[in-house]
Design goal:
Chain lengths: 128, 331
């Protein structure tokens, strides 16, 4: 009976227990700008539905114009960080705002570094 | 013997049809003749065996019952009595065979037909998948228990194996192997058939009930469990174990990739497309209705949202327009 109880407890604990194998975990952001970008992304995700619906009312030729003006005012009243336009695709490792390739989310310098050390799967130096 | 001849001809015709249309080489004709000869011999032997087995095993009641039916013609009534009517060719063959034998013709014919019928019943049962007690089946029947036509075909098949087109290589092993495998399959059959030996007992269900009565584990139990897990969980020895661990944690996807992981949309297609029932709260005419119908049209074509999300979308608009009602009425 004790063994059964123990097995039940083990099953429950396994979900709580973090992995015992040590692995590098990113607990800090490279710089504050990266942090702010992260916050903007979070907010944009939260308000995405609302913005979509209000914009659907605004960009309309059927509804009366007064309604659309009210919708305009509403959308400007939302938090500034909630719009997706403010998100900048920064490099994930160095937080570089320019020269970032979207597929790898890395800046060109980091990409080159890893590719030369053969740490990018399927990437080869071009030669033709 | 006249009756037996047409039956043999029918078997030969069947055999030649199987072997092919054009190539009636002299060798094939020879084969046919040999085949027929063998069939003749086997007929006799088989019938003798059948009769011997029947006289031993069948109860006298059955015989008396058959006799008591008396003057009624055997073939037709017996066919119609049982459920599935026998193949008329088989019936003809049985009657021909019975007539060729010296003993009581009517009795032998009835016995043969009964055997055939039983055979058909067992094959039907096997097809339907009912559990058959193979031992009973075997005890009832004799070893060579197939209808004469099938038997003839089999033997000709064997002969054709024996002699190749060149007439040089003889392969007895193949035919014998075939026979052995067939016999084995016949005897051992399916796994679920046969008497239960009761070697393995089902685990009793008491410990499950005992578990439920115990209260939830205390903090000490949890801590102990955590310690044990930390000790037993060794770091992965190789890449495979590492990948297994990652899959358990959720870092690595499960292969083959299931595109619908996490998406449990149990709604039918009509709930996605026919969304007009949600539009009941809106006014039936006017620009708002027009607008909402467009919204619904767009939602019905959207495969990425679940039904819940779509309903929420419509409800949001409902709330929004209700708030702006006074404004709308001014217009």
């Amino acid at each position: 009976m004790a063994a059964a109880v123990l097995s039940w407890a083990l099953r429950a604990a396994r979900q709580v227990l973090p992995s015992p194998c040590p692995r590098q975990v990113r607990s800090y952001y490279v710089d504050w700008r990266m942090l702010r970008d992260f916050k903007r992304r979070k907010m944009a995700y939260e308000h995405a539905d609302e913005r979509l619906r209000i914009n659907a009312i605004r960009k309309n030729s059927i509804l009366p114009k007064e309604l659309q003006e009210v919708a305009d005012k509403e959308i400007t009243a939302l938090a500034r960080d909630s719009c997706p336009v403010r998100i900048r695709n920064r490099c994930v490792l160095t937080s570089r705002p320019r020269g970032v390739k979207r597929r790898w989310r890395l800046s060109r310098i980091v990409f080159r570094h890893f590719a030369d050390h053969a740490q990018m799967s399927g990437v080869q130096r071009a030669m033709w | 013997k006249d009756k037996s001849a047409p039956s043999k001809d029918s078997t030969t015709e069947g055999v030649t049809e199987k072997q092919g249309d054009g190539a009636e080489t002299p060798k094939q004709q020879l084969l046919d003749i040999i085949g027929n000869m063998k069939v003749e011999v086997s007929y006799r032997k088989k019938l003798q065996q059948l009769k011997a087995s029947k006289y031993k095993e069948q109860a006298m009641n059955k015989l008396e019952g058959l006799d008591s039916e008396g003057s009624v013609p055997w073939g037709t009534t017996e066919d119609t009595l049982r459920g599935k009517p026998l193949n008329p060719e088989l019936v003809k063959a049985a009657s021909a065979v019975a007539s060729s034998l010296p003993h009581n013709k009517k009795q032998t014919e009835s016995e043969l037909l009964a055997q055939l019928r039983r055979h058909e019943e067992t094959t039907d049962k096997q097809k339907k998948g009912e559990t058959i007690n193979i031992r009973n089946v075997i005890s009832e029947m004799t070893v060579k228990r197939q209808s004469p036509a099938q038997r003839g075909a089999r033997i000709t098949g064997r002969i054709s194996l024996h002699l190749d087109e060149d007439g040089q290589s003889i392969r007895p092993e193949r035919s014998s192997a075939r026979i052995d495998s067939r016999r084995k399959a016949y005897i051992y059959g399916s796994l679920k058939v046969g008497k239960r030996l009761n070697i393995f007992t089902k685990a009793s269900r008491e410990p499950e009930h005992a578990l439920k009565t115990v209260s939830s584990p205390t903090i000490w139990d949890l801590e102990f469990a955590k310690e044990v897990a930390a000790v037993t969980a060794q770091p992965p020895r190789n890449g495979f174990e590492e990948m297994i661990q990652w899959t358990k944690e959720g870092i690595l996807w499960e292969f083959p990739i299931d595109n619908e992981v996490g998406m449990e949309d149990d709604a039918e297609f009509h709930e996605h497309i026919f969304l007009e029932k949600h539009l009941e709260a809106f006014p039936k005419e006017g620009p708002i209705r027009h607008f909402m119908e467009l919204v619904i049209c767009g939602l019905s074509k959207n495969p990425y949202l679940s039904v819940k999300q779509k309903v929420e979308h419509i409800e949001w608009f409902q709330k929004y327009f209700e708030e702006k009602k006074e404004l709308l009425q001014e217009i």
